[in-house]
Amino acid sequence: MKDRNKVIKTAITGILALATATAGIEMANAAATDKMEKCYGIVKAGLNDCQTAKAACAGSATVDKQSDAFIFLPKGTCSKIAGASLTSTAETKAK
Predict the structure, then answer these.
(1) Model-level pTM?
(2) Quick one: how many helices (H) and strands (E) in the chain?
(3) Quick one: which of 3, 4, 94, 77 has its CA closest to 40?
(4) CB neighbour class for 8 (10 Å; exposed up to 12, middle 13-18, buried from 19)
(5) SS3 for 36?
(6) Whole-angstrom Cα distance, residue 63 to residue 94?
(7) pLDDT, tens digit, for every residue of 74-87?
(8) 67-91: b or e for each residue (b if 16 or more CB lie within 10 Å)?
């Protein structure tokens, strides 16, 4: 019985630690997102930060400068890059 209680306590402690760590990461991501912007059309194949219109994971861009693939850059940087856009072609067509 003591071993079972020990296992349960260890599992609960692990779950709480994971929840705390996840909350901290989410707060850091939220703060970072306020200072960052998505920049489309400048990514090298396989180096995009997140999903595209056709795929749901980072690193899924199949060609250089794919119009629906983005990377996060500090706000104000994207507009300084020739050929870059703050919106993807897929977003523009949806509107």
Answers:
(1) 0.56
(2) 2, 2
(3) 77
(4) exposed
(5) strand
(6) 22
(7) 999 999 999 999 99
(8) bbbbbbbeeeebeeeeebbeebeee
